[in-house]
Recover the amino acids of this structure.
């Protein structure tokens, strides 16, 4: 079983690895950078709230 420190580190790594790509994708559909930043943040918040489901699906 993983501890919270490992989970936090994994989440941080995923965020750092994918933030720019997610942001670029979203900004191409939005009118402002502020809106794109808000939506990008929302994507990660929702993903991390479901982290335990995602983690189980990949067998980790």
């Amino acid at each position: 079983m993983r501890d919270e420190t490992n989970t936090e580190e994994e989440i941080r790594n995923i965020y750092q690895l994918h933030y720019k790509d997610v942001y670029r994708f979203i900004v191409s559909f939005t009118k402002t950078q502020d809106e794109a930043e808000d939506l990008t943040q929302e994507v990660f918040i929702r993903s991390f709230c479901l982290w335990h489901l995602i983690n189980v699906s990949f067998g980790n």
Q: What stands out?
A: The radius of gyration is 13 Å. The chain has one domain: 4-57.
